[in-house]
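cache lookup: miss for this entity combination. No prior model stored, computing from scratch. Input as submitted by user K.M.:
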Amino acid sequence: MSDRDLSFWGWGYAEKFPDEDERRELKDRLETMLGFPERELRDPPALDEVSIPDSTVSVPEDLAGVCSTAIEDRIRHAYGSGYRDIVRGFRGEFESAPDVVAEPETEDEVRALLDWATENRVAVVPYGGGTSVVAGVECDPDGDDAGYAGVCSLDLRAMDRVLEVDEHSRTARIQAGATGPQINDQLREHGLQLRHYPQSYEFSTLGGWIATRAGGHFATVYTHIDDFVESVRMLTPSGEFESRRLPASGAGPDPNRLVLGSEGTLGAITESWVRVQPRPSHRAKASVRFADFDAAVDATREIVQARLYPANCRLLDSREAMMNEVAMDGSHVLVLGFESVDHPVDDELDRAIEIAEARGGTVSSGPRYEGPHRDDAEAGGSDGGDEDDENDDAGEWRSAFFEAPYKFNALVSMGVIVDTFESAVTWDQFDRLHAEITEQVTATMQEECGAGFLSCRFTHVYPDGPAPYYTLLAPADVGRELEQWREIKATASDVIEEYGGTITHHHAVGRTHREWYEAESPDEFRDALRAAKERLDPEGIMNPGALLESE
Amino acid sequence: MSDRDLSFWGWGYAEKFPDEDERRELKDRLETMLGFPERELRDPPALDEVSIPDSTVSVPEDLAGVCSTAIEDRIRHAYGSGYRDIVRGFRGEFESAPDVVAEPETEDEVRALLDWATENRVAVVPYGGGTSVVAGVECDPDGDDAGYAGVCSLDLRAMDRVLEVDEHSRTARIQAGATGPQINDQLREHGLQLRHYPQSYEFSTLGGWIATRAGGHFATVYTHIDDFVESVRMLTPSGEFESRRLPASGAGPDPNRLVLGSEGTLGAITESWVRVQPRPSHRAKASVRFADFDAAVDATREIVQARLYPANCRLLDSREAMMNEVAMDGSHVLVLGFESVDHPVDDELDRAIEIAEARGGTVSSGPRYEGPHRDDAEAGGSDGGDEDDENDDAGEWRSAFFEAPYKFNALVSMGVIVDTFESAVTWDQFDRLHAEITEQVTATMQEECGAGFLSCRFTHVYPDGPAPYYTLLAPADVGRELEQWREIKATASDVIEEYGGTITHHHAVGRTHREWYEAESPDEFRDALRAAKERLDPEGIMNPGALLESE
């Protein structure tokens, strides 16, 4: 993958931007199915028409080989991949592009860069896949980086190697700039995989996952990057932070947990020992339909409280199911999947189905059991080591999962506001939270845009609560769409805050969520974190304005 | 339980100190089985013969109702329950007893106490069960608390209520001073249990578990208190630290993780929402014997890497098996147990046995399956809600587990050095670590004491490594036993440090492990932690010398 293959203004590969026919079909669907007023298809910007301010930073000679001030590099590192980013990209607005882009290949180069930046008070923004949806990789020149000489985007993707594999302990030492596919490609010869699949998997990096506490595709147990990290290495302006490789420890607060979620504000993560796994040998899956949403929620709760540990336990509400063409009959769908590297998981699936049926669910797809020794007619047996088989436990869902972000590009091009937001909340508070979100966000879309669509799914479930994930669509007044979006986003965030959810289960805080993060997190904790930051980053150069207010 | 029923000098209930006949039997066993030179039985001290220095602290009138400077109270809060503590207790040496003992019943009283202590620079040591084995609840008057007006032991056991139960989310809000039995007693009417069973379960408290990152009895998945904590409330000298109740969150570094393992150095934990569970309805268990230790280790690794999630997966080496009378034939024993609140776990046990047998293991006890609908002859069916059934999945082992600490009292009384130490290490390094520990610790015991016994078990196992736990016995030169112990302890700790283990998997750092904690943890992390502490505890009154060097 070369940076040059990627869209400079939107999500993913440039060539995957849908052609006019496809976009027209999507537009027609929105107008007829959702009743949106007629939308106008617009063309994306051309790179050579974009202009940005001159760089305010001059790079010293010894860093010249690592740094670039080329306009294209700066444009390509200006934003993450949230709705607001894509809108600005589509408009060709890149005023807040960084002044310089560094692409180090070694830790020594990272260290030299941090020393130079500290000395010259240049803000440094660690950059991986550029897939942040919370303005995590963007410094606002009129705001938080005021007082800095400029902004340097520290792109770590040249550091993309699996350095060591310990097959006995099933762990690997991996550089922070490696993307999902790069990691699995290098692990393949060892018969191992990381099996961490955030939606940004194709582009995002190990370092980015750790910095933002990424959530993987799986519903329970080992899914968060937090649980994969055995040790981590981070270069801070004041020195090296390296934790010891340990399966577990009770020695003081966990040092890894200070790095996990630090969002680049303490230093640049350079490598990590992570827990890896063989490819699953056994799988079992089914989809269950429910007429009643509350019953589906109860069934989901009972399955996770039974500690059956499903790999997939994704409840789609009827709108989500319809949008993803999983069910067109108004049903809510619970997608269940189990997998194991060792033993059949048929009984677990059967028990989960039993629980779902007791709540009024009807199996609509499957049960389907897969395993190496299985020869019954139902077996799928897709054990062929195909490149992208990581999520083949629910085929129709999986392609939609990785393709969904591309829809953002198309939707922006036709003047549709599109966003996702997510939370986690205890079961006792979910019903209220969900009802309020549905009512208030829909009302705000109606008020701001005259129409709107909102759907919900559970991405992860816990014995004490679900992680609901919402997708919204609304017709924009082109030119005013960011103001409209801001109102809708604020409504959603305010309701989450008021009804006891977290402002983010796995999208991180960045700059977009900071206001609500401040309401949610203990003041004393943020004070402690700020003190820690001052110790590790005395000049405050690391990603100022992300997570914590810049001082 | 009243404090007055407990031994003031040793572990647990005073009345459980074995009588002379029992002690003589134990003494004979050590002499004949382990070849120890003849030991002399000595009698424990009498409370009224103990003298301690006068308190240096005068308590203000508004705190008089909460505080005591009575000699007995001060003596009873002098130490934890490590070998060194019991030896000093048995000698009647309590010079470092705190100057005052506070027993608040409300948060307001805790707050007033912290304000007074901050103003008067009195060191405050949060105290729960007093079961620390790492000098976590003891301030050294000649060392770390130099410069303080005195030491206050902050006993939180009067705050012992379950305040709220959310049956729907399976969580409960519990005060920090509640002990294991107090928690389960109050949860019983809701049909719930905490199911967290550290060896100190009878006496230690929720707050203590959180402060020290306690490990429970179970071998895999939900066993560490870390995983039970949904939110936590801590009073710091600079204000209240309260995290939000959430099943999960990706918003910044996890605030709970700063409190978990903080060992009283940041504030006093007052309550926590924790995840609770119904009583398991299904169980399956077996013991497997191995002639070869390496084969047993391989089998254990394969079982945990198969992600079968056993509740019990305790490998006892032949010495450990013999000492606990589990196997007298020189076998190593793997004790396997599975349990579920929902479904049979027979298949999981069968598969684990299959893996063990493939490595040369032989089932010696069980398999035994228990469940509500089971009527075969093998069923135990102990579903009677008996007071202490929490660990009945391996009967012989379980009583030994909770009784073991009482042996410390008896052994000290007969001049035997007894201690346990533990670690966690990746599988690839375990063999070397274990070989070196066995060789060097045995050699040091031989050198210092002329004889010695060392046994090993795995308390917890992870896909990437085990948590080995060692028990040692050696004949002491009475009067010089602490010097001898210190040499042995240093040898063990040095080897752990050198061969890549953690200085503690679940015993915590306290003061005993601080030197090795400093070697193990990233300097930059301790710097950050110190900065956080200075922010939350500006006068440095909270448990000075625990975890971090006092400044």
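stored under new cache key. Confidence is low (pLDDT under 50) at residues 375-394 of chain B.
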